[in-house]
Amino acid sequence: MEKKSFKDRFDAKRVGLSFAGVTGMGFFVSILINCNLGTDPCTFMNRSICAKIGMSFGNWQLIANIIMFVIVLIFKRKLIGFGTLFNMVLVGYYVDFFNWIWAKTIPAYVFTTPLSRWIIFLVCLACFMICAAVYINADTGVAPYDGVPIILAEKITGRFPKIPKTLIRILWDGAAIVAGILFGGVPVIGIVLMALFLGPLITTVGKVIKPSN
Prior knowledge:
The structure is a single chain. With 213 residues, this protein is mostly helical. Helix content is 77%, strand content 0%. It contains nine helices and no strands. It has helices spanning 6-10, 12-35, 41-53, 57-75, 82-105, 114-138, 144-159, 165-182, 189-209. The longest helix is centred in the middle third of the chain and has 25 residues, at 114-138. The protein is globular.
């Protein structure tokens, strides 16, 4: 991968794309939560934990992100940028804020009637993945949750080069799902769909936005 200069990595356009991607992620994941058909592994884990301990999603997600941020800061601080801070601080509170809005403006049956529930879920899942792809391709720093498996992959493959890095990421996401289950969460189809389609969407969105960067 081409090494980015400071100007390339932190220019206003990239930072703006990163901020927009994070805002969209918070917006759409709040709707996915209401549909209750699945989210990404990180959200699934954190929602399960915060429900168990009686803390707001935004507060718990920030605490979890700070813990993982310290790990990234110690072992691979070059992964950190404005996008890291946007993701670790804003997504959880966006979710809490938008959930508060939906509770006051959208009747509950909209998220429970089978037809509307599935339409909303599939549209918002696609939009969430596009926003995540924009955020990742803006390349202004990785989320703490994504930074830890990168560090693990480098450490593990350094000693055991035959182990693929993708396997380590899969195991990391799997561990998040197991943690969510242990705290009472029930994984559903959204996690599977995100695992299947997020990678290709990241590549596609990258081809669209990178030539203009």
